[in-house]
Amino acid sequence: MSEYGSAFEVLVSQKDAALQDRDKCCARVDATDQKLQKVSQSVLAAMRREIAESIVKSGVLEPGNRPDKAVTLSRSDFELERTSLNGQIAELRTQLLVEKARNGNLEQRLERIEAQLVAGVPAKRQEPDSGTEDKVATMMGEAVKDLVTRDQLNHAVQELDVRLSASDMTQSDQSSILHASAGEKTGRKLASMEKFIQGLYSNVPTEDSNELPACIRSLMASVNGQERAIQEQAEHREATQSAIEELKRSANGQEQTEYRRATESAIEELKRSVNGQERAIQEQAEHREATQSAIEELKRSASGQERAIQEQTEHLQATDSAIEELKKSVNNQERAIQEQVEYRQTTESALENMKGSMIKVGEDSSASETPRQSVLDFPSIDALESFILTTSKEPLKVLSTNLGRFLDTERNERIKIASETQETASSLLRLETEYGGLVKTQEERHSGLISDLALLGEKLGTVDSSLTAVKDDSSSCFDELQLQIRSMQGWQNNFTTRQLHEAILREMNKLVPNGLNSIMQLTSRIESMEGWLRSEQSYGAKRRKTEHEGPYPSNGHVTT
């Protein structure tokens, strides 16, 4: 036996190492996804808290007061942090899709290797020469050149942890978590954010889930479709697991022909499982398209909204319920991933048993069919060399051809999947950018409404001051009018017929100046007549008085 492993053993060992690395990466991605879900819930609660506080503040602002600049700055910092978290979520989703694609590639490689093994394995294993070993080592190096190592995965996860770690911690907190393990800094950051925002969640009013926007309902429908796809994947995994169990039972008590037949059936089951995973990936792509269309619909509907504050509150509450549904979906996905891990472990153990059984059967068949030949059986060194070249040339040629075809196919598939993954990542980034722009527009509209309310308060203050000035002016005018009324009443009280007569005469003198002499004569005559009348009245009174006093004098003279 040679000290060098066969190509099948090398590929199996590489597959095992890649599966272990992928499992670790999936576990870390799942843990990060859970943390991001908690952060998204906390961020949503903070958004609703901010909107409620802004509404309350806008209602109690005094005239002439502007919104606090500190509130605006905290809201902008909050938006920047939420945008960075959305970008990190998109990166994690992209990495998850890449790992799923690599998983599919590894399963396809496993199928091809098992097909080649079932097709025919050389009964004898000869010592390869140095040139063949170098060629095989070169080909294997080119095959594993683009694979992701464990160190690279650890480095990527460490960078993710650094990006998600606390950037606003104090110096003491940073020194305390300087030597923390990967994921611990992110956990502390998320725990602090959740503790800070959890106490403010109760201030937000709740809404009925029946009044959700159409976009949220479409998101929920797409999430339900994804859950159905995950259920189908679970059914495929169960079928594959049952096939592997049958394969293990048949491998223990049957001959090589029956073993190969069971192996072929297991490979067919594995193919069907891979096809089911491909359909699941396609359904996930459709889910992303449906999500993008739903967000486009949300963008179109938000452009026509007039009651911005109320609709923002309803939208955030609907998003809260949608996130709860997404949380349930993610939990289902976690269970599905756990089942995949168990399925991979079962598959690896089955493959190990298959490999041991095949090697044992090959050794038995080679020992029973071909007798061992010693170096002493050959008459010369030339005959020995020709025998070695004759027996090793054809197996090495077949191995080189199959390995080259396998590496070419794998390279083409890797290029194709990389392009599709890039397109999917760009679509997700574009979707996150549009959603961030929509949220920013809504926040700007909310800020504009707050400023409008402040301006209205200022205008009301101006109107109050104007009313006060009008009141003061009216009071002064009323005082002046009362003074004029008092003067008019005094003039009326002092008004006489002589003054009126003189005024009439002056007016007549202005209008009829030729009749002035006649009027003057009439005036003098009237005055003389009045004087005579007064004298007559006084004289008659005296005469009546003297008549009653006594008889006249005797001489007949009248005394006056």
Plain-language structure description:
This protein has 560 residues and is mainly alpha-helical. Among the domains are: 3-56 and 78-117; 259-354 and 382-477, no CATH class; 498-531. It is 83% helix and 0% strand. It contains twelve helices and no strands. The protein has helices spanning 7-60, 69-119, 130-143, 150-164, 171-176, 184-198, 214-253, 256-303, 308-369, 381-493, 497-511, 516-547. The protein is rod-shaped, with a radius of gyration of 54 Å. The relative contact order is 0.10. Mean pLDDT is 66; it is low at 60-71, 121-128, 204-212, 357-371 and 551-560. Keywords: Coiled coil. Residues 298-317, 537-560 are annotated as: Disordered. Residues 89-116 form a coiled coil.
The strand count comes to 0
Query: What is Rg?
Result: 54 Å
Biggest sheet, open or closed, and with what strands and sense? none
Name the beta content range: under 5%
Structural class: mainly alpha
Mean pLDDT: 66
Binned, the helix content reads: over 70%
List the helices and strands in order. HHHHHHHHHHHH
Low-confidence stretches: 60-71, 121-128, 204-212, 357-371, 551-560
End-to-end distance = 190 Å
Coiled coil: 89-116
Keywords: Coiled coil
Region (Disordered): 298-317, 537-560
